[in-house]
């Protein structure tokens, strides 16, 4: 699925919710933990319960790598279980020199046929270009992340080399501005944390047309209304991720119903926002 | 193995060579490609042929992930085949928020018992701290990388927040300076590219005691003598990685002998440098 199709799904399904499958064996309901292939079983149950309330699933590779090659099998099986009506994201945050980046692109766009993958910008253009060569896929670059220590480096003030004046920008602003020049908004998104709603407005001014993947709503405390207020564009332009607040909504035998209820709550809030913004 | 033991190995074995196992099926000798488990077979042959000439092996996760879960098995089998006299590095360049970073640390320090893992700094302290909690392991943070597009972001001029004056630094300098304050040189290294030998001197001034992992010698064109000139410290402080120039030295049935010969050439140059520098 490409981004213009994601936009259609958002309008049709009246939500811009991505559910993050950050699954850990010791956090899933106790009664499932002893089952064979418990994590896959849990993921399938969560997908069954929530697919009507979201348009995307994001698989965080760390949680699967922590299980070794078995985890990689579960990741693959989970990906293939996601309906093709949903936009699939490998949250991998990879970044390396060109010939290595090409292998990561192959891993997440071919071997595992995800629609999108997250990548890290530190190493610059040759670490990102190999992903952009898959023009029918979506590359999602870290811009301003939702964690507190984004202030360590992302929020540093940098002097722009292109400028003759002494004008300065934040590192994340320059990262977003520069990378936006390497591909069209049809195949490039940016990660912009929901916990940084005030900065989201200035980022939207830099890249008016790009989709944002927005983590940080839910457990991390970001506000959905603020995100919609500051991140909206005329193509909607927002995909909000919620992970733990939905998938671990409940640890009892009712976990599916509770996850569905939590997802439905987000879907309903988003439908309201969409109705208001699109004046449907 | 910890860094003080790596230093001992370097003196004993008279080299500071790390060999990068960036193995791709279509680049290994044709006569091996049809064998079952060809990549693992190749890796074992390369390790057998080169282990007397190096002190470390670095496994680049991208090349294994591109093969899916089978690749993850090969990665694990390769790791377990490396003699415990050698320092093992997962070249993974991971970086994510705290609870995810903890899963990556588990993946590469527990599930796969590497001695060290490479991580990316963009997201700041909470993306790196979970690795540093493994105090008997080594965390290797990207500083200044060997690729051309390190100039896109790593080499930007940033204004230091801590300073009252208008003093400025390169982003990679500030990254290295700040991260060096989070752990002792016993458990923290920095990636400093060999293609950036002139900058290596100023980085050595910032972190006089830390080990550098130095990619870029070999196929990428960095000079071993320049690296030794500018990167040396009183603990040696250098681990130079060579990947393609050694493992793909030859594509015939003699590939093992030719890889060994190439590794031996580096070992011999390094022994000369060590003899000179340590005045043995």
Structure description:
The structure is a homodimer of 280-residue chains. The first copy, chain A, is built from twelve helices and ten strands. Chain A has helices at 3-13, 30-33, 38-50, 61-65, 69-81, 98-111, 125-132, 171-180, 197-206, 224-231, 244-247, 255-278, and strands at residues 17-21, 56-60, 87-94, 116-119, 138-144, 157-159, 168-170, 188-192, 211-214, 238-242. Chain A has a single domain (3-278), classed as Aldolase class I (TIM Barrel). An eight-stranded parallel barrel of chain A has the order 1-2-3-4-5-8-9-10, surrounded by seven helices. A two-stranded antiparallel sheet of chain A has the order 6-7. Chain A is an alpha/beta fold and 280 residues long. The first copy, chain A, is globular, with a radius of gyration of 18 Å. The interface between A and B is large, with 62 and 62 residues. Strand 6 of chain A pairs antiparallel with strand 6 (157-159) of chain B, so a sheet runs across the interface.
Unreliable stretches of chain A = none
**On the 0-100 scale, what is the average pLDDT of chain A?**
94
Portion in helices of chain A: 40-55%
Q: How many separate domains of chain A?
A: 1
Shape of chain A: globular
- The CATH class name of chain A reads Alpha Beta
List the secondary-structure elements of chain A in sequence, H or E.
HEHHEHHEHEHEEEHEHEHEHH
Strand content of chain A: 15-25%
Q: Give the biggest sheet of chain A.
A: 8 strands, parallel, barrel
What is the CATH architecture assignment of chain A? Answer: Alpha-Beta Barrel
Catalytic activity (chains A, B): orotidine 5'-phosphate + H(+) = UMP + CO2
InterPro entries (chains A, B): Aldolase_TIM, OMPdecase_type-2, OMPdeCOase_dom, RibuloseP-bd_barrel
Keywords (chains A, B): Decarboxylase, Lyase, Pyrimidine biosynthesis
EC number (chains A, B): 4.1.1.23
């Amino acid at each position: 699925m490409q981004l213009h199709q994601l936009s259609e799904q958002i309008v049709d399904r009246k939500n811009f919710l991505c559910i993050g499958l950050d699954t850990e064996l010791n956090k899933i309901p106790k009664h499932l933990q002893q089952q064979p292939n418990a994590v896959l079983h849990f993921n399938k149950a969560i997908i069954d319960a929530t697919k009507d309330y979201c348009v995307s699933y994001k698989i965080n590779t760390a949680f699967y790598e922590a299980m070794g090659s078995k985890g990689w099998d579960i990741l693959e099986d989970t990906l293939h279980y996601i309906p093709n009506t949903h936009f699939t994201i490998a949250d991998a945050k990879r970044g390396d020199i060109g010939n290595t980046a090409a292998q990561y692109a192959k891993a997440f766009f071919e071997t595992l046929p995800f629609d999108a993958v997250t990548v890290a910008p530190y190493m610059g253009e040759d670490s990102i270009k190999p992903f952009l060569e898959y023009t029918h896929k979506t590359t999602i670059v870290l811009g301003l992340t939702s964690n507190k220590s984004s202030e360590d480096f992302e929020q540093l003030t940098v002097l722009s080399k292109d400028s003759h004046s002494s004008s300065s920008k934040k590192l994340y602003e320059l990262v977003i501005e520069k990378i936006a020049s390497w591909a069209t908004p049809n195949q490039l998104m940016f990660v912009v944390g929901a916990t940084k709603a005030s900065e989201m407005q200035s980022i939207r001014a830099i890249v008016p047309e790009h989709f944002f993947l927005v983590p940080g709503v839910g457990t991390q405390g970001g506000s959905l209304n603020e995100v919609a207020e500051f991140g909206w564009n005329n193509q909607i332009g927002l995909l909000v991720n919620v992970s733990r607040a939905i998938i671990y909504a409940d640890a009892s035998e009712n976990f599916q119903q509770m996850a569905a209820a939590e997802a439905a709550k987000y879907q309903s809030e988003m439908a309201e926002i969409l109705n208001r913004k699109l004046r449907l």
